[in-house]
Amino acid sequence: MTRIFPDYTYGPGPRAKCWWDETIAAPDWPTFEGEARVDVAIVGGGFTGINAALRLAGAGLSVTVLEAGPPGFGASGRNGGFCCLGGGKISNAALTRQFGAEGRRAYRAAEMAAIEHVAAQLKLFGIDADTHSKGETVLAHNDRAASHFIKEAASVAEDYGVEPGIHSAQDLTSMGMATSAARGGLSIPLGFALNPRKYLFGIVDAAIAAGATLAAHSRVTSIAPEGDGHVLRTEQGRLRADRVIIATNGYSSEDLPGWLAARYMPAQSSVLVTRPLTQAELEAQGWTSHQMAYDSRNLLHYFRLMPDNRMLFGMRGGILSSPRVEKLSLQRVRQDFDAMFPAWSDVESPFGWSGMVCLARNRTPYIGPVPGRPGLFAAMAYHGNGVAMGSYAGHMVAGDLLNQDADAVPAAMRRPMGRFPFGRFRRVVVPAAYLAMKVADL
Ligand SMILES: Cc1cc2nc3c(=O)[nH]c(=O)nc-3n(C[C@H](O)[C@H](O)[C@H](O)COP(=O)(O)OP(=O)(O)OC[C@H]3O[C@@H](n4cnc5c(N)ncnc54)[C@H](O)[C@@H]3O)c2cc1C
């Protein structure tokens, strides 16, 4: 197994102080041992893998999910909980040029369907995931960004058929959304916030009830063809599966399968969570709203006041990964938090952690077969927005195995992932890319 970040990234260190762990206990999944045979093996137990398992087990197939870490180890158990539009970074112009107006519409419709999919899962399985927020609000970090909101509102209305609200800086103050810098706002009435670990473990229960087998601490070390199927090896077992779904996103390896080499770009995102803020502290800052929000930077900050009045604040993480870098990275998050919410500069943030997201050269998610490996499928690359899109992609890739809904996956998400330059050393381009984005944000 070859992975492009240091081992520290894939261990318990970066998520040691994850707030979500305090909110719900992890279920007990056994380690996979010995030999077994199933219809479908799924590598990775996050939103993608569990949503796929749920659909396949519900359709009567035998399914085993192999997860390298403990339950909820990956990004799905440690994200910001924004169940929102997104999943790719492709522009409308590029979508139209490459896939036509119909392709663009289908792509934007899938973003909405992804949110609806999660909302439906919560309802269907009676999962209480501490949801809040009616859509999301973008805060302009400068006047130039605010001046673009009229055009952006028109584009959102055309893409999603909803009416966004445009707010002045004064409006934001009266809405209880005052930061040190916001020059205006754009509210998009789609999406909501949730506790990602409660959502994940809720669908885990549903997948188990549907008949899926889930194994933790069961890292897949190889996937080899055997007859019409595949053999997946873990340290303690050998699983024979007719078909395999790769659901490893930012925790993927270059050789699982080899097709993935240089086709995914893992990147870190970091989050802090404060202690509960008092009403007086909320009013002192002028932020009393539970609306989820992010700023208009390319290197954006995302933040929301949770139902228990703790503030969650996240942004891109470091380029390197080690205990020292992790510490520095969280210090940087704290600095940006203090700059945006100066009234809270003395408020403790006892929780802070990092995790991996996944980018693709095409700037779109991928859902579909692994080229050149019949029987292998993959769903990944949500560009830091995989609560909704990862869930939907897992559901849709399961549909591929069941020969259902194939036409519902937009063409843009069917185009196989392209290769990044520099192979295993592709992370070298990231500092320059971040710098360019930072300059564009000025
Ligand atoms: C700090 C942070 C904040 C984020 N905030 C948001 C947000 O607010 N909204 C949003 O939409 N998205 C957010 N994201 C992104 C979102 O969490 C991810 O896109 C989504 O969780 C991806 O789900 P997944 O199931 O594809 O991957 P993951 O949840 O990462 O799961 C992949 C799993 O594969 C396992 N794995 C890897 N290799 C192997 C192997 N060889 N054998 C067995 N198992 C293996 C890993 O251990 C891991 O658990 C955030 C991400 C991070 C890190």
UniProtKB/TrEMBL annotation:
InterPro entries: FAD-dep_OxRdtase (IPR006076), FAD/NAD-bd_sf (IPR036188). SUPFAM superfamilies: FAD/NAD(P)-binding domain. Residues 39-398 form the FAD dependent oxidoreductase domain. One of its GO terms (molecular function) is oxidoreductase activity. It comes from the Bacteria. The keyword Endoplasmic reticulum does not apply. Keywords: Oxidoreductase. One of its GO terms (cellular component) is cytoplasm. This is FAD-dependent oxidoreductase.
